[in-house]
Amino acid sequence: MGCFGFLKGMMFVFNGIIFLAGAVILGVGIWVKVDSGSVLSLLGKIPNAPEQLSQVLNVGYLLIAVGAVLLILGFLGCCGAVKESKCMLLLFFVIILLVFIAEVAGAIVILVFKPLANDLIRKLGVEMVKDIKNDYGQNPDTTGLWNSTMETLKCCGFNNYTDFEGSPFVTETKNFPLPCCSSTASPCSANNTMNSDVPGCYEKLVTLIDSNAVVIIGVALAIAALEISAMVVSMSLYCRIDSK
Known about the structure:
Layout: H1 2-34, H2 39-44, H3 53-56, H4 59-83, H5 86-112, H6 114-135, H7 140-153, H8 168-173, H9 190-194, H10 201-211, H11 213-240
Helix pairs in contact: 1-4, 1-11, 4-5, 5-11
């Protein structure tokens, strides 16, 4: 009886974490789809962007779907434990197993098609630079999104400050955006920009991901361990219901 109670308690812990994670992911997915000023919206407006980019723009729907699945899993796990329902526990186990298999398959695909992803990013970069040269300083959406991105990441342009050469902003003001200068002095002249060491946003993003690679891998492994533990506990609880 004590072991059975412990298993039920573990189910509550696992599914509480899963439910909260689902709520957060669902919220982020809804925000991505609702926020018209998000970076995804900017990417969607880039003319002549690579066709493969349309798959990236569906990330909001993916987050919503994943969040909803996790919420359902949390509900099934808790109800299955409380009501001691073998049907709910079995359904919980099957869904967790399918999610785990999908994650493993996704990781393999990412590793196998990493060169394709790099090629897509290079093509995207070309189009983003064109977008900067055509619209920065003229289109409020493009200008605002790039300003917020550069201020947040402490970077300049997609590649570097030369991305802004010939843009409406530089043509009109003869200066570059303030984030492109190392100092906070205004205005950010061409000479100051050339002497600054502010990296491009793509380089800064890659550096940020590389520097946090251990954390990202750790989180992925923790999620995998949580899913395996949830499957073990749910199946153990399933098998013990009749023998309780």
